[in-house]
Amino acid sequence: MKTSKPKLVIVGNGMVGHHFVEQLCEQQLSQHYDVAVYGAEKIAAYDRVQLSKYFASGSAEELMLTTQADYEAKGVELHLGQQVSHIDTANKRLTVNGQQTQYDKLVLATGSYPFVPPIKGNDRRDCMVYRTIEDLEAIEQAALNASSGVVIGGGLLGLEAANALSALGLETHVVEFAPQLMSVQLNDKGGELLKQKIQALGLGVHLSKATEEIVDGESAQHRLNFSDGSFLETDMIVFSAGIRPQDTLARSSDISVGERGGIVIDDNCQTSAKDVYAIGECALWQQKIFGLVAPGYQMAKVALSQIAQQMPERVQAPLTFTGADMSTKLKLLGVDVASIGESRGFAGAQYVELSDLQAGVYKKLWLDETGLYLRGAVLVGNVDEYSHLLSQYLSGDALEEPAVTLLLTDESAPLTLKDNAIVCSCHQVTKADIVEQVIAGNHQLAEIKSCTKAASGCGGCSALVQQIIDDTMQAQGLDTESGICCHFEHDRQALFHLCQVENIHDFEHLYQQHAKANASPLGLGCDICKPVAASIFATLENQYVLNEKHVALQDSNDAYLGNLQKDGSYSVVPRIAAGEITPDKLIAMGQVAKRYDLYTKITGGQRIDMFGAQLADLPAIWSELIAHGFETGHAYGKSLRTVKSCVGNTWCRYGVQDSMGLAIALEHRYKGLRSPHKIKFAVSGCTRECAEAQSKDIGVIATEKGWNLFVGGNGGMRPRHGDLFATDLSTEQLVLYIDRILMFYSKTAARLQRTSVWMESLAGGLEYLQSVIIDDALGVNHALELQMDKVVANYQCEWKTSLEDKVFLQRFSEFVNPENAPASTKKQYQYQREQKFPIASDVQTFTEINRSGSGAGDIAITLLDEEEVLV
Amino acid sequence: MSWVNICEESLLPARRGVAAWVAGRAVAVFNLGEAGIFAIDNIDPATGVSVLSRGLLCELNNELYVASPIHKQHYSLTTGKCLENESLSVDVFEVKCQSGKVLARALAQGGVLR
């Protein structure tokens, strides 16, 4: 008999509701429930914290946290644009669009809505709010016909909205009822400095203004009449006067709500109704609403642990919600602002205040009555001390030195965070969590991000996390990024720079001039610094890699222009740009493979590898291939491998651009570029993405208007989707950006660092890279382009060059005295599936793989041919 | 064991390895110029494959090594010991140059000639 799983329903697909589902799936609890999510908005969860980025990129794509397809893949039903209108808590039923549906457990994550003050005329045309992507689209639309805009509300969100209006080119004003800006977080003097800074940016700030009515204006669409008799005219109005918990559904379903709104929850995030939980901004805990994302995530974890508790095999202790720290650090209209704890002070408090109007900095620390404990802080204009102060505040420890020293910290001084200090507030990661992982061997920021989740939320703590990694490694006596090996104290980037600036083209000079002072005079180097130097020389000059100056520096594969296999033989990989190959060339390859008895396989990069070539046969194999029009595929190099492509609009009914043509052109442009690690590209001819471009270092996806460029994707051990770098590019623009990105990567990446990890290790990440490549923030683009042009101009097929060089060919007569060889030295191979394999390999040949009838998961394997044919 | 003539000295490229047959054994010979010529087994004991002559030469802690091109273990050119794994080692051969010729012979553990 089929027993159906209990049904878990989540109402709301905002950041917190989505986080709940993510945790559910991550902890593999989703398999115990049928999970359904109802979202009122028409699109899946997106990053509301970064909402104003919408105006920077002009699209919601970057903000998306997930997609309908992601949910499908997780086996979670996602119903978007669906309002849940009633909960029958007695019979555990929901009404959605008039239909009834059952639940066993229910989680309310309905969020909040913007409060619009009851001002006469607040429903006039172009009076809007700022919360959803739909709101932003409406604001963008209205701004087209407006020259001025007013934001009502001078709090955190109001200033963000003002930033957006200003970015849309409107003359912008902020109207605030209170006598200061950000009256929840800042004190009067902090607010005053913020006001001055915002006014200096050309925005109007109007404090202590109560708007009485909105009427027709004379010079603009609206006029705001204030209670003091003054007025302000504007074309559009955005209300941002605070948020209110979205508790309508709970109210109408007789679930307890607070006097001033909010669904009442206990420490378990449980509401007054059995099996109904509430999390995020809609929830009221101890008369408090938490309007930040971090406490919402915590509630999601708590509710989940409580639900999981009721499953029989769970042994983990349930979590409870114990409140959350509301300290924040942010940049508003380009002004750094931070508040910690009781940032507005309290009766009997002692304080330390620093006000430097000349430098535009205001800082105030609030201490308890004894002056020994930090209770709060306000920072405006400069927030360097935020991490120190927050750590001190959260630790609850007494100050060891006079409080004023907290404001005089030297940035370069070692960090004195306590072990229990929360470094990443989005994911509640402490310093101790990070230190533990560093000691376990995770030394890269990217690794720490993936195993602790620190810095993977808003990313604000990345610099701090990096510092903790460095400090921990130093404490362990490990070298941090200082020096690639025991011969050089420079990292790869520094060596690249030195070689470029000082025109160094050989290892001898590099070693003489830049090796460590105590490095041996022999100057031999090692298997780390030599290949790095070879790669740098190749990126800078793109000379023949096996010339006399460089040949001794090349690693196993580069040294013989082939990929060394486990039996000492090599694979041969000619370039088949974008996987396009003529029948004649296919036949030629087949004939070569047959003549030299090579194992052949079509690879994931859409080309054909031929394995088992003996060192001595490589020159003959390559001269035949070259005679048939092939060239080297650089499979042996840390360089461009392949540009994978779908067939594109030349054949495909759905294609919108010629992806094949572009892929071939890109492969020919960048072939031969030596880089810190291998580089893979892909081009898809439409949004169906058959070429899987988002999993490549450089991915290009055709759009109706041009090409979308993705950077930093990876398959392999740690898969990563590429970041959307730019949209709707012309082909010329696309190539220009790729030129710059690849050369910037080649210059700045660490040794053997793929673009995915490089991207994550760049302080400032994608945005920083965009500012360098698109806006030329470092002023290096011209030099990067020249460098790429040089590499492209100096391209050569290394096998063609090699075959013309007698000295080079000597390398392939492996033994200097072949006349002394013992009688039998031929390598032995076995034959399976009509091809050869090294004799030491265990080749498995399966006829069929059956699932046996009863035992779940048992797999029966039948060997087809156990007879091994030896040669 | 007696000295075996391998090849002309001019055939040994600087700072690189070549393979040679010495009394039926594959040997990797490395020419380090002023620092000398060194020879060890060509077979990588970690994999049993005859490739050490194709490895990169390294100087680590005042000792000369070759890094196996297969999995990068380092073998000392003077003692044959593996830096990463004490249980692995290769035999070391004695090398000398005589009137433009390179000669080699096997050297037993502890320096006693076989």
Can you walk me through this structure?
The complex is a heterodimer of chains A (871) and B (114). Chain A has 871 residues and is α/β, with parallel strands linked by helices. Among the domains of chain A are: 7-113 and 245-309, FAD/NAD(P)-binding domain (3-Layer(bba) Sandwich); 116-241, FAD/NAD(P)-binding domain (3-Layer(bba) Sandwich); 492-559, no CATH class; 639-795, Sulfite Reductase Hemoprotein, domain 1, CATH 3.30.413; 829-870, no CATH class. Chain A has 25 helices and 42 strands. In chain A, helix 1 (15-26) crosses helix 8, helix 10 packs across helix 12 (462-475) and helix 13 packs across helix 15 (529-541). Chain A is globular and about 105 Å long. By secondary structure, chain B is mainly β. Chain B has one domain: Rieske Iron-sulfur Protein (3-layer Sandwich). Chain B is built from no helices and eleven strands. Chain B has strands at residues 4-8, 17-22, 25-31, 37-41, 43-44, 49-50, 56-60, 63-67, 74-76, 92-98, 101-107. Chain B has a six-stranded antiparallel sheet with strand order 1-11-10-4-3-2, with no helix packed on it. Chain B starts with a strand and ends in a 7-residue tail after the last strand. At the A-B interface, helix 16 of A face strand 1, strand 2, strand 6 and strand 7 of B.
Brief descriptors of the model:
heterodimer, A: about 850 residues, alpha/beta, FAD/NAD(P)-binding domain, 5-stranded parallel beta sheet, 42 strands, B: about 110 residues, mainly beta, Rieske Iron-sulfur Protein, 6-stranded antiparallel beta sheet, 3-stranded antiparallel beta sheet, globular, disordered C terminus
